[in-house]
Design a protein that fits this description.
Radius of gyration: 21 Å
Pfam family, one: Methyltransf_31
Number of helices: 13
Largest sheet: 7 strands, mixed
Structural class: alpha/beta
CATH class: Alpha Beta
Protein name: S-adenosyl-L-methionine-dependent methyltransferase
CATH architecture: 3-Layer(aba) Sandwich
Strand order of the largest sheet: 9-8-7-10-11-13-12
InterPro entries: Methyltranfer_dom, SAM-dependent_MTases_sf
GO biological process, one term: methylation
Keywords: Methyltransferase, Transferase
Shape: globular
Number of domains: 1
Length: 404
């Protein structure tokens, strides 16, 4: 088995599309004791998936711990016949404000280190509670057809590969491919999974016509032309294939499901004026939104997904879901839904705190004074841990089938 890495820059460090499209084999280097190792992944194919309308009620605290333990094992470095040499590591990563940041894209600027990998795995569990494991049509799209081509799934911006791991386990007859800017650290890769390191912004023509499902979740911070990416997805999909898109808009919402206003209020000369200020978590994520936009990320993609997909001539059976989920466990009551909301609140609180810490290099690099950023982080942590102020994030999800 071989592992391919598609680099987004040429040897001279400048962007080179021709170089980026050519797989680079990572040769074994047993002499490099500090090499970053990862297991080779399975062969390419993509399949479509859908969001289930119900949360599995069997998920509980014990199963959550088991799932987290399983996800953590995906991040543990392990020996492999392939490795990243020290020189390639130095070319691929840089330190910024104490965190490792990838060098292949100037748009995406969240870290690529162990704390971030751990956050992404826990986020995957949270999102399973929020939107469900798969959309309804996924089972039909990925049904095994012995007389047809092997089913295949593509996950764009796959992160640690947690979603692909679910696909590989639930659909062992499917080939699954993940694409991300950095290689994940894996102890075990299912035989039907393969990862590729690439910058999606450079184009995906090499995947055209190969997949039954294309999934993209929370990648807008690193995408310059999201509408163009959707067009490429339509070409990647086989007839009747499934596209699944899920994005947040980097805004925090109040209990009326309206975004907190970040317009600078008058000087807080009274306690009432001070109380009218938006919460620190909203202000900090507002800084993130501005910094992502300044780097070229598409922070408005979430609110445009439905229009883009609905108006694209290749898609039909478009389904749109607009979901608000709590950022802390403030829900009260003993009903099943209130318990579910509290569970999501606990998971979302931990994810949000880690997410804001991960975004510190982004906001500092974007010009936010360090003292202001750190004060907001402290205040936001206090708000979310106390859980007294209802705050929500909004996730907009679209899935659709490709026409014949």
């Amino acid at each position: 088995m071989s592992c391919h890495v598609l680099l987004a820059a040429g040897d001279d460090g400048e962007s080179d599309a021709a170089t980026a499209r050519s797989p680079v084999r990572l040769d074994h280097d047993s002499s490099d004791s500090e090499a970053q190792r990862f297991s080779p992944l399975f062969s390419p194919r993509a399949t479509s998936s859908t969001f289930s309308e119900e949360i599995d009620s069997s998920v509980g605290d014990e199963s959550d711990r088991d799932e987290l333990a399983s996800l953590s094992s995906l991040n543990s470095p392990a020996p492999s016949v392939y490795s990243l040499t020290e020189s390639l590591i130095q070319a691929s990563f840089r330190k910024e404000f104490g965190r490792d940041v990838q060098n292949h894209s100037e748009v995406y600027h969240l870290p690529a280190d162990v704390p971030e990998f751990e956050r992404l795995n826990k986020q995957h569990m949270m999102l399973t509670w929020v939107v469900g494991k798969y959309p309804a049509p996924l089972m039909d799209v990925l049904e095994d057809e012995p007389q047809g081509p092997q089913k295949a799934v593509l996950d764009l911006g796959c992160g640690t590969g947690a979603w692909l791991g679910d696909i590989a386990a639930d659909f062992p007859h499917v080939d699954a491919v993940g694409v991300d800017l950095v290689p994940p650290q894996l102890t075990y890769v299912p035989p039907n999974v393969r990862m590729e390191v690439d910058d999606i912004n450079l184009g995906l023509e090499h995947f055209y016509g190969q997949f039954d499902v294309v999934n993209a979740r929370l990648i807008s911070a690193g995408i310059k032309d999201y509408a163009g990416l959707i067009d490429q997805m339509s070409r990647i999909l086989r007839p009747h294939g499934l596209v699944i898109l899920s994005e947040c808009d980097f805004r925090v919402y109040n209990e009326d499901m309206e975004p907190f206003s970040l317009t600078a209020p008058p000087a807080a000369t009274t306690s009432a004026a001070a109380a009218s200020e938006p919460p620190a978590v909203a202000r900090y994520i507002g800084h993130m939104r501005k910094c992502i936009r300044a780097r070229g990320g598409h922070v408005d993609a979430a609110s445009l997904l439905h229009r883009w997909v609905s108006q694209h001539r290749s898609f039909t059976d478009v389904v749109y879901r607009d979901i608000y989920f709590p950022l802390s466990p403030f829900a009260r009551g003993d009903s099943h839904e209130m318990r579910r909301q509290r569970k999501i609140g606990f998971l979302a609180r931990d994810d949000s705190l880690a997410f804001m810490e991960s975004a510190r290099p982004l906001v500092l690099k974007g010009g936010v004074p360090e003292e202001e950023a750190d004060n907001l982080l402290v205040a936001a942590r206090s708000e979310l841990m106390e859980g007294r102020l209802p705050c929500y994030m909004r996730m907009q999800c679209v899935y659709a089938r490709k026409r014949t």
